[in-house]
C-alpha cells in the first residue's frame, strides 16, 4: 500500500491522503469544509454516489435542536457518540443516522450521554489533532476509551476497524435509536436478530422526513463475540435479551421494539483489533446479507485503497492547476458534488420505491436522494460534464420509475431512500430530464419521460397547480408561497416545451411555451418586483420586498431574491424593467443595499448575505450572471470575485449556507471554471471569469476541453478577451456542444473592465422573448 500523506490546512484541520502524489485530486480535497457553520456536510467515508455514508455523529439532545446537526457532525463539537451508516450531505433538514456503532471498553453505559458531561454515557471526547479524513476514509482517537477508530466504505458496505488499548476488553455498542432525532419522535419499530456469534441482522422503520422509511442491515464481525446483551429501552424499560450464546437453550434469537440497543463483548483479541462490516438494504435482512458480498475482504488497507481509487477516478474527470487554497476549494466542491443522488438498490437490483413496495431495476442502477429544488440548477448540469452518460441516464430512469410507482403519479419533488418528502416547491425533476435530453444524453425512454413530465405539471392537487392552470398564476389567497411557485412552475414549463419541441411534439411544446410566460402574471411593473396576486387579480397589500416568512408569498426568500427568477426569458425581464440601464441599476441595488441582517435572521436558510443577495440559498445563485443578459458582463466578473471571496473558504465553516446535496459546491465548481448554466435546458453556459489557472475537463465522450486563464491574479479580476480554439470569442456565453467537441477556451485577464466585450445584443445568451 502507498504511504499515507498528511496535510495541514486552514483552521488546524488535518486530513490524510492514501496516495503518493501530493498533487493528486484526492490529496487536494478537504472533507472538513462545510462541517462547521451552516454547511451541514459530513467528514466520514463514502464512495462517489454511494449508498453508505459512514460518518461520526457528535450530538444527541432533542429533535427541536436537530437543524445544526443535520449531517450528524459539527466541527465545533468535541465528543462523538458513535458512527452511523447513512447521512445527508449539506441538507437543511435532519434525518438518517441509521445503525449507530460505538466501540468502548470498561463499564457498559446504555445511553449516549451529553456532551457537556464527560463520562455520562458511551460517547467519547476527541480532538481534531487526532482526527484524519480523506475521500473514502476517516479515523479518530476516542480519548475516553483509548480506542483508535478507522472507517472506509464500498457502495453498500461500511467497514470499521477498532484498535483497543492493551489489556482492555473489546466491546461494542449498537444503537438502533436515531442518532439525530429523538427516537420517541422518529422510531416506529426496530428489531435485531442474532444469527451466529459473527453475524447480526436487523431493521428499523422511521417516521422522520419520509414517513414509513424502512432500512435493513447485516452486521458481520471479524472476531466472534463472547457474550451479548440486547435490550429494548423504550420508556426506560429494559427488556433483556441474552447474556451469552447458547447459555441455557432459552436465548431469544430476535428482539423487537422502538428502542433496541445491544452490547457485544469480544474479550481481549490477540491483536487488540475488532473489525465489523455493515451492509444496508431497503428491501430485507436477506438483501443486506447478500450485499455483504460486495466486500469479501477483511483487508482494511485494500478496501481503503479501493475507496481512494474510486474517488481518484471520479475526481480526475477534472484536472486543476491553481493556487493551493483555490485548488483545495475547487476539488472539494467537486467531491461534494458527487455525494448524490445516491445509489439505492441491492446488488440484485431490488429497491424500495415511493409506494413503499419492492421493485426490480433492470438495466440500470436505481438512485435516490434527489434534492431537486436545489440541484437542478447547477449540480445536474455539472454531472452531465463530469460523469459518464450511463450515470446520468440512470438518474432519469430512476426518476421515471419513481413516477410510475408513485401513488400520485408524479415525478419526485424531494425524494430520499425511495420515498417522497414533499419538501420545497416546483416539479424540478422536469428540468433535470429536459437538460440531459437537450444535450443528447438520451439513452432512456423519452416518451415515458415526457409523459411523466407533463403529468407532474398537470397534477392539480400539488402545490396549487389547479389554480395555476386556471388563472395563469398561483393565487396567494388560495395557496401559500404563491409568487415563488408561479415563477418556478413557469421555468419548469419552458423546459417541457424545449424537450417536446426537440421530440417533434408540437402541440405539447406550444402549450408549455405559453405557460412559460406565466411569470409575467406576477410581475408588478410599477414596483419592479415579483409579487403575489389574489384570485381577483389584485396584488397583495401591503407590500414590503424584504419580507420573508415560512408560508408567505415566497419560498425561503423575499421579493428582492425572487424577482430575478425567469432564467429562460431575461429579455422579457429587461423589457418589464424598462431596458438595460434600469435592469443593471436594479440588480446593483440587490448587491449594494445596506441591509440589517436581522430582517432575515428568522429564516435559517437565508444566509451568505451581500446586500439582499443571499448566496447561502439557491434562488440567488444565478443572479450575478444576469449582467451578461443586460450587456454588462464586466459587472458579472466583479460580483463573482465578491461572492467567491466572501462565501467560500478552505476551512470548516467555509460554506456560507447548506451545501444542499452539492448545489453550493457545484456553483463554485462552475464559477471557478469560468462559466455557469443559468438556464438548464438552453444548452448554454454564461461566461463569468475563471478562478483557476488551468482546468482540463476530461469529458465522458473521451475528448478534452481545456480552460486557461492568462495573467490571472487577485488584481486581474476582469476579462479582457476570450479565445475559443484560437479564434476570438465575442459572445458572452459558450454552448454545451462547443465544450463536448473538445478544444481550448482562453481568458486573458486584466485589472480594468473591458466594457465592450460581450455587451452587444448579438453577443447575449438565449431568452424565450427576443431582445428588442
TrEMBL record:
Endpoints of the signal sequence: 1-19
Instruction: Give the matching Pfam families.
Output: Glyco_hydro_92, Glyco_hydro_92N
Q: Which GO terms describe its molecular function?
A: carbohydrate binding; peptide-N4-(N-acetyl-beta-glucosaminyl)asparagine amidase activity
Sorted alphabetically, which keywords does the UniProt record give? Hydrolase, Signal
Domain (Glycosyl hydrolase family): give its ranges.
288-750
Asked if the record carries the keyword Transport, the reply is no
InterPro entries named in the record? 6-hairpin_glycosidase_sf, GH-type_carb-bd, GH92_a_mannosidase_put, GH92_N, Glyco_hydro_92, PNGase
BP terms from Gene Ontology: carbohydrate metabolic process; glycoprotein catabolic process
Q: Where is the Glycosyl hydrolase family 92 N-terminal domain?
A: 29-281
- CC terms in the record's Gene Ontology section: cytosol
Tell me the PANTHER family matching this sequence.
PEPTIDE N-GLYCANASE PNGASE -RELATED, SECRETED PROTEIN
Protein's UniProt name: Glycoside hydrolase family 92 protein
UniProt source species: Undibacterium nitidum
